[in-house]
Amino acid sequence: MGMLLRSSSMKSGEYLEGMMKDYMGGKSKSKPQKSTATSNRLMMILTCLQMLFAIYGTFLLFFMSPSLDKPDFLWAARIADKWRHFSVVGRSQTTAAPPLLSEICESEKIDFEQKKSNDEVMIKFKRELYQEVLDSQRNRSGIETLPELMAMKSKWDSNNVPKITVILNHFKRKTLCTQLESLLHQTVPFHHVWVLSFGSPNEQTLRSIVEGYNDTRISFISSGYDFKYYGRFQMALQTTGDLVYILDDDMIPGRKMLQILSHVAGTKKYENSVLGSIGRVLPFRQKDFLFPSYRKFRSKEAGLYLPDPAYDIAVDTIVQVDFLSSSWFLSSELVKTLFIETPMTFLTGEDLHLR
Ligand SMILES: *[C@@H]1O[C@H](CO)[C@@H](O)[C@H](O)[C@H]1NC(C)=O
Ligand SMILES: *[C@@H]1O[C@H](CO)[C@@H](O)[C@H](O)[C@H]1NC(C)=O
């Protein structure tokens, strides 16, 4: 369809959010590795070199780090467990001196393996499809670049700073300190950070890290019971702020992320959107009425993963997607709409309707 020139990708270190999903490598993604502060910094810089973009979706896809199934307790024990282990710890509740961050902080290098496709046909399919999506959205509702988005009028600006609650969810990864460092150095400060630990084997370490920060705005919320995919969104119902930013444990936001996201969320056009940085355009139905996997080789119907380094697909405008994954930025009011429809199951978070 569209024959427009592909806009060249802009590079702007400030605007970015790190994307550390090794989504091309499948689900077995944790490859823990001790790393030095230097490689940690390098990782931050690398992630900051990515282009920022915002993607909004009418549906949400909840991608959580795979949590292992718990051993099968008796149902009664399980219920007791649920209540016994639910606790919230803020700084005020700690009596002993907080642990030293230099001793407790762990880091993890998440390999940024960006597989590149060298299949000409696939590259052509994917890029043409992306161009088609852009062309139709450009005509339908307009797709703004980041400077255009930032030039739009927003109710959230330096005179009216929104209260942003950031919800982090941790299970096994060692990225909490890196995330908190990034959040503490944002151009627009956060209101609260809630660190959730549901059924995590690392609960003690995570708790110590939060205590180590000794910051009344950062709270640790843990439970022996795993509230699974909906848990963090249920917690989001309780925020007192204006906006909520829910982040996977492998997402390290760039310095201006809160500023950019809150600005866009404050515009009339996007106030009812969910914003994020990784998204999917769903597959198209094949002749046999099945939906092919995204990875299906040489399939034109397989849909898009955005951005997709495998096919050099960078995203430099706002793009509407079917699902967001890895991070979700939305108004606190909008969180309620997630629960309008009863989910078919709490075991997966996929196909949750936002509207
Ligand atoms: C977008 O609009 C232009 C100009 O009106 C038109 O030529 C083009 O075919 C449209 N593209 C799509 C994908 O609808
Ligand atoms: C923790 O923070 C409080 C208030 O900011 C401060 O008075 C106290 O000294 C801090 N504790 C440590 C061990 O840094």
Largest sheet: 6 strands, mixed
Which molecules are bound in this entry?
Answer: 2-acetamido-2-deoxy-beta-D-glucopyranose
As residue ranges, the low-confidence spans are 1-39, 41-87, 90-94, 350-355
Distance between the termini: 30 Å
CATH-assigned fold name of the largest domain: Spore Coat Polysaccharide Biosynthesis Protein SpsA, Chain A
Radius of gyration: 20 Å
CATH superfamily of the largest domain: Spore Coat Polysaccharide Biosynthesis Protein SpsA, Chain A
Which strand order do you get reading across the main beta sheet?
3-6-5-4-7-13
What is the β-strand count?
14
Query: How many domains would you count in the coordinates?
Result: 2
Organism: Genlisea aurea
Transmembrane segments: 42-64
Keywords: Membrane, Transmembrane, Transmembrane helix
InterPro entries: Nucleotide-diphossugar_trans
Explain how this protein is built.
It comes from Genlisea aurea. The chain crosses the membrane at residues 42-64. InterPro entries: Nucleotide-diphossugar_trans. Keywords: Membrane, Transmembrane, Transmembrane helix. Helix content is 27%, strand content 16%. The radius of gyration is 20 Å and the shape is globular. The strands form four sheets. Strands 3-6-5-4-7-13 form a six-stranded mixed sheet, sandwiched between helices. The protein has a three-stranded mixed sheet with strand order 8-1-11. The protein has ten helices and 14 strands. It has helices at 37-48, 75-84, 101-104, 120-140, 146-151, 176-184, 203-213, 228-236, 257-265, 332-335; strands at residues 55-57, 59-60, 87-89, 164-170, 192-198, 218-223, 243-247, 274-276, 278-281, 304-306, 319-321, 323-325, 327-331, 352-353. The protein starts with 36 loop residues before the first helix and ends with a strand. The model is unreliable at 1-39, 41-87, 90-94 and 350-355 (pLDDT under 50). It folds into two domains: 39-95, no CATH class; 120-337, Spore Coat Polysaccharide Biosynthesis Protein SpsA, Chain A. Residues 97-98, 214 line the site of one 2-acetamido-2-deoxy-beta-D-glucopyranose (NAG).
